Amino acid sequence: MHSPPSPHHPTRRTVVRAGACAAALAVGVPGTAAGAASRVGAPAAPVAPPSSRVAAQALPLRADTTTQGDILAGFRKDHVCVLLVHFRHAGQARRWLGGLLPELSTTDQVARFNAEFSRARTLRNGVDPAGMATLWTGLSLTHPGLSLLAGKDPFPAVPVGGTAEAFRDGAAARAEALGDTGPSAPDSWLFGASEDDVHAVLTLAADDSGRLAEAVDRHRRSLDGAAATVLFGQDGATLPGALRGHEHFGFLDAISQPGVRGFDASDAANPATVQGKPGTRLVPAGEFLVGHERVGARPAGLPAWATGGSFHVVRRLAQDVPGWWNQAAECLAELKRSGAAPADADPTWLAARMIGRWPGGAPVATCPAAERVPLPGEDIDGALDFHDDPQGWTTPLFSHIRKSNPRGGLTPAPGRPPLPIAQLDSRRIIRRGIPFGPPHRPETGSRAGGGDDAARGLLFVSHQADLVEQFEFIAKRWVNDVDFPPARHPVPGADPVIGPGSQAAFECPSQSGSRATTLSFQRFIRTEGAVYAFTPSLPTLRSLAAGKLDDSIEVHAGTVLRSGDTLDAGAVRLSMESSGDLVLYDGDGRTVWSAGTSGTGARARFTADGELAVLTEAGRPLWSSKTTGHRGARLLIRTSGDAVIVQGDKTLWHAG
Known about the structure:
The protein has twelve helices and 26 strands. With 656 residues, it is of the alpha+beta class.
């Protein structure tokens, strides 16, 4: 029996950490031209030094006190508990929410604590600072949960194929399309099979397991007092010893997290990347946090209550560790028989190519012969790129890191030039997963919890602004699709780590070009539960605690409406027509208002200065709302039947 090297022997591991095991992008990007401080018993987050405050001014999202902290900053705790909650009475649920609000952790609190912790850790040469500990709290709501608290459907309209539809449907209804079939089908899930049952996802994270247990017990009592039921509780914890930072197959996890503009500093040498991490691109914040600029200035098309929030995916993924490693050994034997693998290669050699990284995190692309220990402070992905490996001779095309985040070098077809890396930005997700269950240690036996039958796996958590174009796209169009990268013969195969079982083409050079050895990969990860939720801003949660929810469709500053873009508020919809006119229609399709730019307009833009304008193809203004000089103004398409630009309680412009 083959097992991962890390559970039994000290593993060389890097000090580089961040996050990803399923993130990324694809061919064709839509819309493009081609709480700690106030918690009872919790210490306040440390006050940032002046240098940090200056950085916060340059990076405004770091100082955000309205958004929840796990989205951009990340709780980053060794111990986590997720409680899936069902409310029986809306009134009691609202009162419970009102009492929870002071405990919710904000981006500002979490970012300041993480920065202080990192500085202290650096001063101690990589040793965690003793005495720096806290407890973080986060809350997400499902579609039924939002409906219950608001007393109405949270969406005035649900466009077909969009993220609102996916959120309303829930994870179970979309399971088959995501590959959750057979043993992974919803009828065997521990939670989420009926999304109507789950109203809220309460996340608690702490440095200390004892403190976390006390918090979990306190919240369970509070929920019980609110006539709520905890349907399921999922614990997660960083693996011990040499496996710290690794997942159960034995590979360092959380390495390839995207950078976020306005939250992460840019590198002076390459402003498109994160400071000190030339391998990490900066992605517009609107890809993760609703209300900010997106790739291509695309409209979010979501209600005002979604501003400042993020869609939240939670999945319990069980891992069959011995099965996965036995498969690696069997497939390696096949490669040796065909001459495609070195005679002295061990199962880790192939497992590293299935992942795309060695157990310590170093990419196979940069050190194919053997694992290399990164230097202290080195950006482990700084040189990671696939432009020079279009055939997958070094990093197989089916490898997990290429299927979940193709990076530079993705070609739409063999022989075609690679896509610009910026076209992949709108497919990235922020991942906050953590392992659950004991490490696999067969020598200890099942009584010690390390045997083959112990429940273990990964609690997968991701944040994204669009469920369909980010999380679901990655799963369906990249990870699970045997024909991605596309138009190759033979087809590359599905992701051998998190994808469905499939045949895969292991390609290597030959005298005639490239030859492929067919491998058969089975699935050794099983979905045991899944939920689609939304992590609202604190202002939205305060409104929900009062039984209110603003379902006007909001057009955020910096948004550009192009031909065919329609924002539907049910009673009315705002559409940028192919004729070049910006038109407001009522529910029966009658024109309520028009900019009068038919035949000359090309796009509409809502600026940060509060102006809505229709422009020609060359960018010349044709029509304007004449509301410039009102920074922070909001453009809303209201369910009452009109479109308005407002600043506070003052209406600056209206149509209809």
